[in-house]
Structure formats: structure tokens, C-alpha cells
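Subject: D-alanine--D-alanine ligase structure
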Amino acid sequence: MNGKPKVAIVYGGKSAEYEVSLQTAFSVINAIDKEKYEVLPVHITNKGRWVEGHVIAGALEYKEQLLLDENPTAVSANEWLTPSNINASKHKPDIVFPLLHGPNGEDGTVQGLFELLDIAYVGSGVAGSAVAMDKVLAKDIFRAHGIPQAAYLAFTKYEWTEQREHILAELEGLIGYPCFVKPANLGSSIGISKSHDRKGFMGSVELAFQFDQKVVVEEALEAREIEIGVIGNDELELSTIGEIQSGSDFYDYESKYQDGETNLIIPAMVEEETLAQLQTLAKKAYKALNCSGLSRVDCFVRTSDHKVFVNEVNTMPGFTLFSMFPLLWKHTGVEYRQLIDRLIRLGIERHQKRSQIRYRID
Ligand SMILES: Nc1ncnc2c1ncn2[C@@H]1O[C@H](COP(=O)(O)OP(=O)(O)O)[C@@H](O)[C@H]1O
Ligand SMILES: [Mg+2]
């Protein structure tokens, strides 16, 4: 590495969270230490083109500056990101910070691309990202590790068509109503609904199948929603805990992004024993899914007995200045700029360690 490490901030993307991603990039680019890093913006347009901009040395005034023109001189994805070109290219970053959420960003696909290009990146690798994104795979792994979670049942569209009666019997025996029905692979609560009876359930399943071929049904827990930040590769650090209090029946898409009625309470108040359980489970879940860099582990604390359940692990949690994850770290004593710095260093460290792995025996 000569001079300052070059950090490519990749944002946008073909997903429901395009706008959020842009907002995040704006926050990160303005906060990152430019004395220390050379900052290169890379905009994935909502059509899926990768457009690289000029190095950013000062502060941005508004986020629209990040909508890089698709002009002919801009480097396209095909030039910027191909294994044959990249190593000779002056554009090769030392590390990529992918500020992308959901499918194609947080699910291992883009991570696989960076692996092939032999570029360090912030966050979890291919397997961790992919498994955390798939609610069914994640739950099966949690089960194998004895991590407490809501009772669940998963099935594919094909199975739903072929064995509907059997699935209904199993559901009503194992879980009952109310229950949550979720597409296996999405985020932001899209396609998720709560059903209160068989009729509602049929509708919920149809809705979820619009978004994925696989769905998961869970017992609806009467619980508080507590989130905790984890950073690290081998040695893990935990943030303060925070609580989500949404104005609606559950933390749905509107309450996440639109209605402004959701409160983030930091720190969340729980008993010592509950806090200890949350901390143990957060680390366990992070390791079980093979995460690295960062994750936000979302838990439930059941109202009746304060038992802790893991809900999900987000490998690229919301990362604007006002999102839960950075706010948790701020409360823990790690400012946004410092947090960005730590994550970049963890990404570089992971890449260096992986570079020492032998692939051949001769
Ligand atoms: N088993 C459950 N019991 C109670 N509430 C749930 C359950 N599963 C999900 N929810 C509610 O639905 C919201 C979204 O579900 P989640 O699995 O976190 O999906 P996403 O990946 O879209 O965030 C949660 O934040 C919570 O409010
Ligand atoms: Mg969630």
C-alpha cells in the first residue's frame, strides 16, 4: 500500500433500500477520516450499473452529489470490476466498504465478487452474509448451536402446492395462531405479515411467496425487541443494548422508514441476568453464522419470563448517523468516524489473514 489506503464506498444498488443506501453513503463519506484514507465513491445505479466517481477530498453538501452521472468517461462496472483489469488498474481500491442492504448487497453475492478480485472489503464474507440473509438457513444453524429462538416451520412454494394439508396440520400443531409469515430472503419487513387464523394465514403465505420461493412461519412472541452491536473478527466486542419501540402492531416497513413513530431507546433497561444472556447469545449467534467485521444481532426478550430469543443477525445493519448500530456504538464510546475506521481495519485484517491460506499442496 503506497500512501493513503484507497477506500471505495459502494452504494445504491438494485434494491428496495436504494434510498437508504444513498443516505448512508452521504453520512459515511462525510465522516470518514480523509487525512487517513483516499475516498472513492462508486454508485450502483438502480438499473444496476456501477459508476465510479472522482476521489472525494472534502465534505459533500447534499446527497444528490452522489448520483454520479452515467457519462461516457465514467468508468463502468465492466472496466472497473473485472479480474483481468483490476490488478493493473489505478482504480483498484485497497478496500471496499459496501453500504448495500438486502439481496445483491448483504447476501454474499457482492462479497463473492470482491473475493474473486482479491480485494479486501468491510463486513462478513460470502458464507456468513449468505446464511444470515436466509432466515431459514440461519434458523437451522441457530438450532444446531442450541441458540433459543421462536418455534418455526419452513416450506417451499412447491411443498405448499403439494402438501398443503400436511403443512397446515403441522403449523396448527406446532405453532398455532397468531404467527408471523416471512419470505426467507428479504429485509425491511417486506412481505412479512402476522396471521391470526387459518384464513389470514393463507393470505400471508400468498403474500410472502410473492417475494421468495421459500417462507418461514414463526410463533408470535409477546416480547420486547432488543438489539446489540457486535464488531470483530476473532475477538468480539459488544455495544450497549438498544430497544425498538414501534407504534404499530410490529416493526413493519412503515415504522422502519416512514411513520416516524418508532423510538430507539439507548440504553435499553433490562435486568442484569437478561443483559448477560443477550451478550452471550449475541456472540454465539455471530460466531455460529461465521460473521466478521460487524453485525447487529436482533433479539426478543419475552414479556412473561424475560427469556431471550435470537430473531436475526444483520450483517450490514442500517448505518446512517441516526441508525441503531452507530448510535449503539456512540453510546458505548465509539464515535461514528472511529467506528468506520475500526471496520476498515477489520476488513483489511481479515483479507490479510485469508491471503496466508494455502490453496495447493505443492
Ligand atoms: N416471532 C416473532 N414474534 C413477534 N414479533 C415478530 C416475530 N418475528 C418478527 N416479528 C416482528 O416483525 C418485525 C420484522 O421481522 P424480522 O424477522 O426482523 O424481518 P426483517 O428481516 O425484515 O427485519 C420484527 O422487528 C418484529 O417487530
Ligand atoms: Mg428485523
